[in-house]
Amino acid sequence: MTSADSARSLVSLIFPAFNEVENAPAMLDFYREIVATYPDHAFEMIVVDDGSTDGTGDHLLQLAYAGEPLRVISLSRNFGSHAAISAGFAHAAGDAAITLSADRQEPLSAIGQFLDEWAAGADLVWGLRAVRVQQQAVQGRFSRLFSVVFHRTSDVPTYPAEGPSQLLATRAVMDAVNAMPEANRNVLAMAAWVGFDQRRVYYDQLPRPHGVSKWTFRRKLKLVLDSLVEFSRTPVKWFTWTGVTLFGIGVVALIAALVLALTGLGGPAGITAICGTVLLVGGIHLVALGMLSEYVWRIADDARRRPIYVVKQVLRPTASGRSTATK
What we know:
Layout: H1 3-6, E1 10-17, H2 24-37, E2 42-49, H3 56-63, E3 70-75, H4 81-91, E4 96-99, H5 108-119, E5 124-131, H6 137-153, E6 166-170, H7 171-178, H8 187-194, E7 198-204, H9 217-231, H10 234-263, H11 268-304, E8 311-316, E9 323-325
Parallel strand pairs: 1-2, 1-4, 2-3, 5-7
Antiparallel strand pairs: 3-8, 4-6, 5-6, 8-9
């Protein structure tokens, strides 16, 4: 780093990537465009190769210039995007870090918005999508509903109800998140929980140039469970109030059954109602038990103290295309 670079603040650009070889050139071009557009800051590019099997990391290194401030953090297998972001935070050398999508869906202007809010004193800047690219209708509604419910019921009311897409985190926020041991994590909610000065910027999401999103419905569902279990006791409270409600219904039903028996008006319809009630209550009990099991499982998972991710190697570009670096 030159003396001119040392006088500027360093921003780490973190790209979690899983099988994004087609988008590797666009990622690198975007990084270079950012460097050219915002010369008042120094930038480093950190790509967390989250167990890709298509050579994403190698292709990036082949395209990069020798000595370019790029590091490819290669994980030993696919751990998920939130573990990959955590790895990016842990390896970031910047005074602040901005998370970006490997499929190049953030406009260049969003970087300027992030940097402006940081310069104005923000510690955490949420990147929110004013316009989203087309999603499957059911999954899109599910994502928006989760963000609203989580915002209202969790212990982190600063989590944006619109659903965050990316963020800028200062060194203080990154250090706080790096110190958190949760194995099953929503790293965005963890950053929100930290506090500090949190602000928002809005931008129009760009269409994905290649391939399809690896953010499947199954991964989204796991994130919902991780988020609710880690940051909210509301699901347990829901079942508590459901139990109170059913208790009241049961009392009324018993009184009604007694009246019918005394008046001789009971019959097969009453038996059917009783059977349906038993099945309903039994189903609710099983769902409640399953939810409690999710809490217990995550407690056990955290108690094992397994690492959130495993780094296979850290690579930097050289004239020959790649070299292994240690950190």
